[in-house]
Amino acid sequence: MGKQSGTSGSPDDYSAHLVWDWNGTLLDDVTAVISATNAAFAEIGIEPITLERYRDLYCVPVPKFYERLMGRMPTDLEWEVMDQIFHRHYRERRAGCGLTAGAEELLGQWGRAGRSQSLLSMYMHHELVPVVRGYGIESHFIRVDGRTGPSGGSKALHMERHLEALAGTASPERTVVIGDAVDDALAAEHVGARAVLYTGGSHSRASLETAGVPVVDTLEEAVAEAIRLTA
Fold this sequence. Notes:
About 45% of the residues lie in helices and about 15% in strands. It is built from ten helices and eight strands. The longest helix has 19 residues, at about 75-95.
């Protein structure tokens, strides 16, 4: 999907565009994340964490999250080990996760309305693409990007590159990012887009509300807010 015919290139000439987050947003994997986190913690001597405490403490960059748990920032070596252990356990558990309720229908409705959408995740790109394809939803997106480079950082620069790649199709001013983390809102702000945050993933509602953007409990509400924000 591209620009509407006869456009001059101003923001109003573009249809509304959604940038979806993956983990904790379109993919309902929070139980796998908690399980993998606790399995990794057990290997390095950290006490297990509940979902509620995880959501209260989780933040990006992820080493800051570990600092909140450990009382100190992990060393570079500790972070590398913890990250590798987490992803090993997560891969084992991710296969049992399904899409968030209503996700596939919402993706279809958005596309049939003549609007565009893409997916940007901090999950490793070479693993993300086949995983998304495996859930049968890849065709809904005009672009799917995962993280390249080191893990643990912010989404802002990835969002910048993502929208640069969509130039001519999506305007930041007509774009809404839907995600489950405060970092999604910060990434949207970085590029001049809007954001809606969903409570079903990594953050508590109280944490998400600190971002100063709409916070919702379902993806259906998120899409309705996106339509309102781009009207």
